[in-house]
Amino acid sequence: MRLPRFILPALLAVSSATAAEKLNVVFILADDLGWGELGSYGQKKIPTPHLDRLAAEGMRFTRHYSGAPVCAPSRCVLMTGKHLGHAEVRGNRQAKLTDARYDEGQHPLTSGAVTLAQVFREAGYATGAMGKWGLGPVGSTGDPNVKGFDLFFGYNCQSVAHSFFPATLWRNAEKVPLNPKPVPGRARQPEGEVRLEDWQGQTYASLPIVAEAEKFIAANRSRPFFLYLPFTEPHVAMQPPRAWVEKFPRDWDPVPYRGESGYLPHPRPRAGYAAMIALLDDHVGRVLSALERTGAAGRTLVVFSSDNGATHAGPPGTRFHIGGADPAFFNSTAGLRGFKGSVFEGGIRVPMIARLPGRIPAGTVNATAGYFADWFPTLCEAAGLPRPAGLDGESLWPALTSGKTTPRAKPMLWVFPEYRGQVAVQWGDWKLIRQDLATKQPGPWQVYNLATDPGETRDVAATQADLIRRTEELLRREVAPNPVFPLAIPGVTAPGQ
């Protein structure tokens, strides 16, 4: 039946109102941000007013975990809702190692992998990603456009993202010129004066990335959107603009960083690192302001987290951590053991803040245990979208909206073939770890009670034989073979799986 013409404007108005009322999602991801590096998590030296405001207006979680101890697999877990026993990407492997067609980018997601962005786009959402991708080169099955994003702007390749002054960034399948004289992400300067200006370029890449996010929010003010913002800070190389470095005390830095632990030299490494976190906070502030300007803040779920823990130590005998970071000075792990690359708490426990006015109680702190695999079912439930079959996570929506700590039904697990091979499983307060699995002498099970020993200092494996047995049974069920990222777990998986 043909509808009368006078009815069409009314129907269009209703449709527009319905679209405007749909939940928007903005997921902001920091890169290598430590558990203790935000004011709301106890940081004393680096001001993070915008993120602290987000925590005051929303919920801060105290037992949230990344998908993996390093970048690409953690993002895979987030985007696909599959833990590391099922994830396609379990390490930072370069795509060119298995496919000579690609000169940049990481091992790609396959055509069969379903991402959060695909589900939201299928539901009529505008979808955008600005920042660092790392899940497949342009033109591959893991291309962000193929994986559900209408617009991608930023670094496709994690290695290119080691410089904040690259030659180009990607806008979908096109390279956008950025710096006529790009600055590499790695160099050493054993002698002489270390000058900041020697390692600065024309355009600091994060600034056009944030501007693109602001434009995306403005362009979709009348349409529901899913916006993924994997910012690069505070991952080294340490290259924040001078104006941001100058915000911090000169007496913090008695000696320069000369690149001895990798990446670029810096005359004031502590001030430089603090500047990167302050810049990250400013990015978040700009995104929050863009939501407010468009009237979308009240119907937008904003989530903030980090892809793994703080930057790990440099070579033996070096003063600085990788890239010149100094986690001890900033208390970056707030007493947790380990750093990036480790399945100890300092490598995988991460800040997590969520805000949705009127639904998530403001100023609350929640001890619900959760990790990146949980965000796929959580965001589907929040937006009223169907969940794909086979997700590994549990929805955090009940905990987010009730404000109450919610017990988990499933254990959390990490199967990480890099950094000598590691596996970890959490059952409530119990955490089990095996290390050195990719060596000739795999380590034994370690067992820690996080309720009484959050610093993982007392291994009680000798008294937990039954828990170890249950854990091995769980891993036999939950670890699927992955020939690209194999890891043999003695008593659990066969070599090459």
Q: How confident overall, as mean pLDDT?
A: 95
User: How would the global form be characterised?
Assistant: globular
Q: What is the makeup of the main sheet? A: 10 strands, mixed
β-strand amount = 5-15%
Q: Kindly, what is the distance between the CA atoms of the first and last residues, rounded to a whole number of angstroms?
A: 59 Å
CATH level 1 name of the largest domain: Alpha Beta
Number of domains: 2
Helical fraction: 10-25%
Write structural notes for this entry.
By secondary structure, the chain is of the alpha/beta class. It folds into two domains: 18-402, 3-Layer(aba) Sandwich (Alkaline Phosphatase, subunit A), CATH 3.40.720.10; 420-478, Arylsulfatase, C-terminal domain (2-Layer Sandwich), CATH 3.30.1120. Helix content is 24%, strand content 15%. The strands form three sheets. It has a ten-stranded mixed β-sheet with strand order 7-6-5-4-8-1-9-10-2-11, sandwiched between helices. Strands 13-14-15-16 form a four-stranded antiparallel β-sheet, with no helix packed on it. Strands 3-12 form a two-stranded parallel ribbon. A hairpin with a 5-residue loop joins strand 13 (412-416) and strand 14. Helix 5 (206-219) runs parallel beside helix 7.
Please write out the topology.
Elements: H1 8-21, E1 24-30, H2 49-57, E2 59-61, E3 64-65, H3 71-80, H4 116-122, E4 126-132, E5 151-155, E6 168-171, E7 174-177, H5 206-219, E8 225-230, H6 242-245, H7 269-293, E9 300-306, H8 327-330, H9 345-348, E10 352-355, E11 364-366, E12 370-371, H10 375-383, H11 397-402, E13 412-416, E14 422-427, E15 430-434, E16 446-449, H12 465-478
Parallel strand pairs: 1-8, 1-9, 2-11, 3-12, 4-5, 4-8
Antiparallel strand pairs: 2-10, 5-6, 6-7, 9-10, 13-14, 14-15, 15-16
Helix pairs in contact: 5-7
